[in-house]
Amino acid sequence: MTFDILFEDDHILAIYKPAGYFVHRTKLDYQAETLVMPLLRDQIGQKVYPVHRLDRKTAGLLLMAKDEESQKAFNDMFMAGSVKKTYLALVRGWAPESFEIDYAIENDRGKLQEALTLGKSIAQYEIPISSGKHPTSRYSLVELYPQTGRQHQLRKHMSHIFHPILGDRPHGCNKQNRFFLNQFQLNDMLLHAKNLSFTHPFSGKLVSIDFSPRGEFNRIKKILETP
Q1: Rounded to the nearest 10 degrees, what angle do helices 174-184 and 216-225 cross at?
Q2: Active site residue 9
Q3: 65 and 23 Cβ atoms separated by less than 8 Å
């Protein structure tokens, strides 16, 4: 596996992480062929350090540090909310034009943590295929701006407002997931990390890294766009 490098300087690099890859070793995956860190280390010939997370099922922009000093600086920025993150998702139903989700999320220890997501609907689709009691099925392309960084935050928040992300298991809609699997052979979750923007802690320059979706996200989007 060779990752696409979208941005690089002396301190950091940003790559495109496909769905299905863990950032680092977890209890769920000990296989080196699905871990970003060792694969990227071998690709660029030096050790890399994680500064934030992307779920295994989430594709898109992933930022890595090249040394421990840079890792600490960017970790602090992510913790402080100084890095602006933008995601795209395809969801069930017609989402509101703009929305705010202020809904606490439990961590692994069962403790509730404040969580806030802002979002807006970019496009709405209606396809002439029934996935339930109605003769047609409706979906939306939404842009999401997490203001906090809780685990599975966007997935849980979109499910909370009854617009679950397509392909999301276990937080999404099982009925819709089965419909898209049977109708369109979709196995992936349609959540994409599109943009990271920040003031570089070492150069002081504004950096904005943007990368549009590819693969299954685009395939399903084109199906939904077809009259």
Answers
A1: 90
A2: no
A3: no
What CATH number does the domain containing 185 carry?
A: 3.30.2350.10
Bridge-based pairing state of the strands 84-92 and 191-199: antiparallel
Can you read off the two tokens belonging to residue 70? 């840079």
Tens-level pLDDT at each residue, the chain (227 residues): 899 999 999 999 999 999 999 987 665 555 556 899 999 999 999 999 999 999 999 999 999 999 999 999 999 999 999 999 999 999 999 999 999 999 999 988 889 999 999 999 999 999 999 998 899 999 999 999 999 999 999 999 999 999 999 999 999 999 999 999 999 999 999 999 999 999 999 999 999 999 999 999 999 999 999 87
Q: Is the pTM of this model over 0.90?
A: yes
Cβ(156)–Cβ(101) below 8 Å: no
Contacting residues for 133 by C-beta, under 8 A, at least 6 apart: none
Output DSSP code: residue 150: -
- Domain limits at 55? 5-225
Structural domains counted in the chain: 1
Both tokens of residue 60?
């898109």
Interatomic CA distance for residues 136 and 105, integer angstroms: 33
Catalytic residue among 4, 42, 55, 76: 55
Q: Which two tokens stand for residue 120?
A: 């807006």
